[in-house]
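User: Hand in any protein.

Assistant:
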Amino acid sequence: MALYKNKGQMEAEMAEIDMKDTGDPLDHAGYRKMSEDRSLGIPIFNIDMIVYEISLGEIMAEDVWFYFISQLKPKVPIWEMVVKVTVTTLVMLVSLIGNSVVVFVVWKNARMRTTTNYYIVNLAISDILVTLCCTWVHLVDDLSEGWVLGAFFCKINTFAQVLTLVSSILTLTLIACDRFFGIVFAMKAHTTERRASVFICLVWLLSIGVASPLLIYRQQKERQWKNHLEIWCDDIWPVGLTFRPRTIYYTFVAVVLYFFPVIVMTIAYSVIIWRLSSSRVPGDSIHTDQRSQEYKKRRVNNMLVSILLVFVFCWLPLEISILYAEHRTNLTDSLPTWYKGWFQYVAVFLAYSNSALNPFIYSGFNENFRKGFKEVFGFHRTLRRRYSSLYSGGNHAVRAETETKRTDSTSFSCAFEQSNCSCSTRASTHAALK
């Protein structure tokens, strides 16, 4: 494969090719005339079975006569399509239902309205936004040839991806700071709680500001070929500068707004775990209430650390793929086959599936969330009805036995009182006769 930066470079190399043996005519520009791919119905530029590809972003104004054939997607097998559709649908359903229940449980239960749970609700809203704007778009784009979702989703898909990534990572950082000050510096906890709503608003404003360039530079492009309209969606950043704005932008998002907060949170939770483990005192010197509070703190911290670890695991492959694409040795070369195949798909899918995993973590570590899930899905009411029926059925005998015991006790009490009364009457009569 040869990759040309411009039309002139291609003409210079074409002039050196010996065409005597082929007998094909040349046109006025020195190009071999185009042949047509009968299976695709589109024109391609072919010389001695060598397909030359060109970077479309470099020659937008040129009259290009060949198709970027290397980027044509092969036909997706039926089994692969069924697997991807099934798994993606399951992830979307779990994410939408689970995160909606998290928001509902906190809204319904007044005791759940704590600073940490407010941040968890904010995280759940980010997960819902990922599911609505990104997950299904990724599936459609993977199964279709070219971009088929229009200019609106071309902009909003990547915008929502960066928006939710930044909002989620900043929310997790706020949770880590809240736990850090609440445990290590207990006097600062009230200050953090009063400002929770302000911090959440700042998180969304900053996230919108970071993702907003994609609303400008992310565009849908079209190119009409002989029998085919090519449509694609890509970033169109300013060219001709001494630096690459696209590379700087994605490097900033990956390093400053992903890896750096992860390091900060790792340090914060390490200090929290060390503080809790060092404050444990053996024996009966700790009161029962204090031990219960320490246990609850550890459960909450285990839940938050699990959320962080799952988030890092799910988003890390995508961040690595972005950095690789922007910092590879030769940016003019097309990306390798292993990158454009399953690796890129799995990296993006894993990042989006994080939205479906968080509700399981909430319900697994927090009893209140677990009870809320049971109530919403009817398990709690079903169990309560069964228990009530069993209790009411077996309660008649218990009540009868209780009434019998109560009657016997009353009779015994009355007999005992009457006996005492008669004895005292006899004694007083005997004394009077004397």
Notes: The domain at 78-379 is CATH 1.20.1070.10 (Rhopdopsin 7-helix transmembrane proteins). The chain has two domains: 3-71, 78-379.
